[in-house]
Amino acid sequence: MSAASTYTSENIQVLEGLEPVRKRPGMYIGSTDARGLHHLVWEVVDNAIDEAMAGHCSEILVTLHDDGSVSVEDNGRGIPVDVHKQTGKSALEVVLTTLHAGGKFGGDASGYKVSGGLHGVGSSVVNALSSWLRAEVYRDGKMHVQEYKRGKPTGDVKAAGKTDKRGTLIRFMPDKDIFDTLELSLETVLTRFRQQAYLTKGVAIAVLDARPKRPEADRVFPRLYRFQFEGGIGAYVTHLNESKERIGQVIVFEKDTPEGQVEVSLQYTQTFQECVLSFANNIHTAEGGHHLTGFKAAITRTINAYARQYELLKEKDENLTADDVREGLTAVISVRLRDPQFEGQTKSKLGNAEMKTAVETVVNEKLSEYLEEHPGEAKDVVAKCILAARARLAARAARDSVIRKGALEGMTLPGKLADCSCRDPSQSELFIVEGDSAGGSAKQGRNREFQAILPLRGKILNVEQARLDKMLANNEIKALIIALGIGIGEVKDIAKLRYHRVVIMTDADVDGAHIRTLLLTLFFRYFPELIEKGYLYIAQPPLYKIARGKEMRYVFSDAEKDATLKEWGVNIDEVQETEEETDETEVTEETEEKLTKGKPKVQSPKPKASKVGIQRYKGLGEMNAEQLWDTTMDPEHRIMLQVTMEDAERANLVFTTLMGSEVAPRRKFIQTHAKTVKNLDI
Ligand code: 0RA
After folding, report:
1. Angle of helix 645-659 versus helix 663-673 axis, rounded to 10
2. What does the pLDDT look like over 185-214, one tens digit per residue?
3. Which end of the chain has fewer CB within 10 Å, C or N?
């Protein structure tokens, strides 16, 4: 993009500037599915958060409008609207029509310390991918407005009266010609902004869901949410540990270093899990990076030093390992730096080497200070780490017998695995199926050339306690690990994975969601590489089969069912759902005619009136082999969700909350979510 050389003609510049974005949207926002759609929202809100981080904005309101558009309003300084002599354009227009101008335009003058790196593709990308966009700027007592269509201004910035507000409002309509779906997930939106609010201490992010009634969501959810955490990442750690038995207080360290700003918050718990989240410029670094490395090095060093100094570790004892000091640790590491480099498979690994020393120095200094000042807590923490070390040594022998080199390798593939004949992992798929009966249908229905089936018994997986390590000794899980072919622990080798599509196929009910959460958590903790490489999927079996005459359709949600019935001209109230395929409703000739109009000719003459039958599938086991193939397994027709690290992370959180060792929070979670229990599925 040669933005600099194209200031000669406005229109051409816009055309050249943003045309590539519409041509290849994936290059700019990753994809045009739901994920890409959400990216547009993140982008606009990120800019407002930048304004907040620069200290000029305290409130951000995100509205999901009833027409499908989204607006983001902040009370910052307002994007400048004065016209540049050279270009004849306002700064606002430059930001919204020039690639990469983003919130960073104006350079030094803007007073911005840092700016989001990964998502910082710029507001112009949002503009380009919106059928329309309206920008309102409130500055100096005046309101200014400019509108765009598909990235092109429909006119100049216009004065639009007086206002006593200050700030910027961007409202945009994602282009239906670009995106596969325009449906934003409230849950995804709320999760993201809750996290952003934690990371941007004090800033209020409100979400107003002003969309019309949707069957499931509206009965349950309120419409206005507001996240504001004066405690910042300290409050985040408190939140993450809500359901856990805690050791000591939440500790928070902050320091501005020449390399960048470092914030760390941590607290130990009596659990066996480690929950360490790292961020760079508010972007979650799921793959870690130098800031995380520095953190790990520092806590290992500091806790060992303290334990030695106070002779909690005896001379003969080995040092605590990095794993020992991370057992039961919950921490959030947030760094802000001028020029973040994001690397790795999913561009979520911080590549700036200087951040290792920056974080390490801060944590070394502040944590040892804290331990010195809180000897009681310090001793509890060290005791916990020593316990972890002992458990590690004791478990090593036991575990080695399960996962020692060769132990899994040498084992033959489990008997219940119906393997595929193909030996090329890139072509092979493994379906992990809940229950023997569904497993039977899947085995019959599959394409045995490239699809393998592993039935798992749900009941066995239904462990009460969050002891995944214990589950590794469970035969069902062992069978899974052997089937995958990759080993575990020190002998894990992802290159040996036997299937590049691993598909979790569970029922669309609470038990199914439970098992799915558990499997996702297992993959998240022990095989994250598999998720990072995009090998893990969730099958989407249909909820209903709707038939009318010879025509038949599988639908995957209540909304889709209603839409289909509407399309077919059927009065929804007259149709009864059954679990069998018998119930039918008359379709009148009139609607029948409406439906056939404009459709390709049908070969056989249609009956005058045909009947509509709806079958609801309660579980996979209710589908016969052919139905299961048609709807859920056939690569030509099926829908599968690719699991992201965020999905798995969320499952991990649900897993700890729902299956943790303390009862009270669990009850609270179930009570507040009882009506939405379906939303537990990821
Ligand atoms: C640079 C300079 C100034 C404002 C902004 C950026 C700005 C950008 C966005 C994006 C969303 N909301 C925003 N609010 C402000 C103004 C500098 C000045 O007035 O001195």
Report:
1. 120
2. 988 899 899 999 999 999 999 999 988 765
3. N
